[in-house]
């Protein structure tokens, strides 16, 4: 699959894909005889993983570290798990923060509903 197709499929710009390859996030992207990238299933899986982790807020540095550990094989499984666990913990903390913010917003919305209802009642005296 050519880079433009991968870009469209995963919603990642071609410049970003090239950057990810240059910094080591996407390793071993196959090339055809002309030197043009020809993403295979493994490369596409790597793009999908990197996109998912970036969408989850994982830093480029942590992702590069993860991919370097992955290259080293099974001996690094616990270190990779630890990186992912930290990311999971960060996401859970962000979710908790968002839930608190959502509760506050809903409280304020309810408060304004009460204010608006009181204003409407005041405009209709005698009811």
TrEMBL record:
Transmembrane regions: none
Pfam families attached to this UniProt entry: MerR_1
Residue ranges occupied by any HTH merR-type domain in the UniProt entry: 1-69
Coiled-coil ranges (or none): 81-115
InterPro entries documented for this protein: DNA-bd_dom_put_sf, MerR-type_HTH_dom, MerR_fam
Keywords: Coiled coil, DNA-binding
CDD domains associated with the record: HTH_YyaN (cd01109)
PANTHER family: HTH-TYPE TRANSCRIPTIONAL REGULATOR ADHR (PTHR30204:SF98), REDOX-CYCLING DRUG-SENSING TRANSCRIPTIONAL ACTIVATOR SOXR (PTHR30204)
Protein name per the record: MerR family transcriptional regulator
Naturally occurring in which organism (per UniProt): Adlercreutzia shanghongiae
Source species taxonomy: Bacteria, Bacillati, Actinomycetota, Coriobacteriia, Eggerthellales
């Amino acid at each position: 699959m050519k880079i433009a197709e991968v870009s469209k499929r995963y919603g990642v710009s071609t410049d970003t894909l090239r950057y990810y390859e240059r910094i080591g996030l996407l390793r071993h992207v196959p090339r055809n005889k002309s030197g043009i990238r020809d993403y295979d299933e493994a490369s596409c899986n790597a793009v999908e993983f990197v996109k998912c982790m970036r969408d989850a807020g994982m830093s480029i540095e942590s992702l590069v570290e993860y991919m370097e550990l992955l290259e080293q094989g099974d001996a690094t499984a616990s270190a990779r798990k630890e990186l992912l666990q930290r990311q999971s913990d960060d996401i859970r903390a962000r979710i908790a923060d968002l839930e608190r913010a959502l509760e506050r917003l809903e409280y304020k919305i309810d408060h304004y509903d009460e204010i608006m209802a009181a204003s409407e009642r005041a405009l209709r005296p005698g009811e």
